[in-house]
């Protein structure tokens, strides 16, 4: 069921508090793609205002990415795939590939430079042959669906929150709802300046919500989302949002990873709330990678077994 009306969503889900028995709230493992060939992707820059105009240092990006892998490996098993100069945005794999138990989903990317990523063979083969899961493609003609870029998933409840933008269309919304086997998806418009919901919003292990209200076109939609989480909501300031705090990710039921810039931007009250919700912040410096318009969450593909 896909719902587009805030009142309908609030009545059917926020007031009824659906059970948190749909799945594991945090991933079992993770996959990443090395920033080999890291550079500005001009096609992606057409609708990603977070991208820097110049000054991309590929060697520094590689070093910072290695730090992400090292820190993440202290929490989860991690598999790293190589990047390529043909795919300069590949360091952000969660837009192209996503998983639910027993299934790898391959998205439908808007720009050709990212469509090339979806046709690599090694990553789907590893999921199919090593993990024994089926591989499902949703990149049919007329579909735009950049997976957990526009779609934020409450894995505990089986609920999706899809911010509509240039990176997802109606066909893509329905395709993702079905592919992720969600109980329900709430679809709402983002501001025209926003390209992915995961820059402005995160659900942390089903226990807490991080959200920048002003990035949604309608404040009623923000309230409808927040209603399900009661007091466990962190409303981001403009400064926190600009520093990619909304791109944080719960990599376990206790650990929230975020970039060092996002960690620095956290207001004391936001940090205190995360601690009260039972989370420890795990920052990693990735300011070089952030020049490409994404942050920590964009770099990590979650694996659910």
TrEMBL record:
Belongs to the DDAH family. The lineage of its organism: Bacteria, Pseudomonadati, Pseudomonadota, Gammaproteobacteria, Lysobacterales. It comes from Ahniella affigens. Keywords: Hydrolase, Transferase. It holds the Pfam family DDAH_eukar. This is Amidinotransferase. One of its GO terms (molecular function) is transferase activity. GO terms for biological process: arginine metabolic process; citrulline metabolic process; positive regulation of nitric oxide biosynthetic process. The keyword Hydrolase applies. The active site is at 196 (proton donor), 298 (nucleophile).
């Amino acid at each position: 069921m896909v719902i587009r009306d805030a009142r309908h969503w609030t009545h059917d889900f926020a007031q009824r508090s659906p059970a948190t028995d749909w799945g594991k709230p945090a991933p079992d493992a993770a996959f990443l793609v090395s920033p080999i060939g890291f550079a500005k992707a001009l096609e992606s820059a057409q609708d990603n205002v977070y991208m820097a105009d110049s000054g991309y240092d590929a060697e520094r990006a590689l070093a910072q990415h290695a730090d992400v892998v090292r820190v993440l490996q202290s929490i989860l098993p991690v598999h790293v795939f190589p990047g390529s100069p043909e795919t300069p945005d590949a360091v952000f794999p969660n837009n192209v590939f996503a998983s639910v138990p027993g299934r790898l989903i391959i998205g439908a990317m808007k720009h050709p430079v990212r469509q090339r990523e979806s046709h690599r063979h090694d990553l789907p083969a590893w999921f199919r042959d090593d993990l024994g899961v089926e591989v499902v493609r949703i990149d049919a003609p007329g579909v735009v669906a950049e997976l957990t870029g526009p779609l934020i998933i409450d894995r505990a409840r089986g609920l999706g929150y899809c911010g509509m933008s240039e990176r997802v269309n109606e066909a893509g919304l329905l395709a993702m709802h079905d592919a992720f086997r969600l109980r329900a998806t709430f679809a709402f418009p983002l501001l025209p300046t926003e390209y992915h919901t995961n820059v402005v919003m995160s659900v942390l292990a089903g226990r807490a919500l991080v959200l920048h209200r002003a990035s949604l076109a309608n404040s009623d939609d923000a309230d409808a989302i927040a209603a399900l989480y009661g007091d466990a909501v962190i409303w981001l300031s403009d400064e926190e949002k600009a520093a990619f705090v909304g791109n944080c990710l719960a990599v376990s039921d206790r650990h929230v990873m975020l970039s060092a810039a996002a960690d620095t931007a956290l207001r004391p009250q936001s940090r205190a709330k995360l601690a009260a919700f039972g989370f420890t912040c795990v920052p990693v410096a990735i300011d070089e990678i952030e020049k490409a318009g994404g942050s920590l969450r964009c770099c990590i593909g979650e694996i659910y077994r």
